[in-house]
Design brief:
There is one protein chain. The protein is mostly helical and 62 residues long. The protein has 3 helices and 2 strands; from the N terminus they run ββααα. 47% of the residues lie in helices and 6% in strands. The chain has one domain: Orthogonal Bundle (Arc Repressor Mutant, subunit A).
Length: 62
């Protein structure tokens, strides 16, 4: 889970991918709307497969 951070100074404390301002909820929303990993990475090149998997895992325990 070190790929996901929660910092009140970044996006008002919403969980984001470490080193980015890309929130977990955005990734989950894209997946729910039919985006696959490749399409998400194409739209957000700073992400990789492990970041997306971490967002999914985070949502399962949060």
């Amino acid at each position: 889970m070190n790929r996901i951070i929660v910092d009140p100074k970044i996006l008002a404390g919403k969980p984001v991918i470490a080193g980015t301002r890309i929130p977990v909820y955005l990734i989950l929303n894209l997946l729910a709307n039919g985006y696959n990993f490749d399409k998400i990475i194409e739209a957000y090149p700073r992400l990789n497969k492990q970041d997306i998997e971490a967002a999914i895992k985070y949502s399962e325990v949060a």
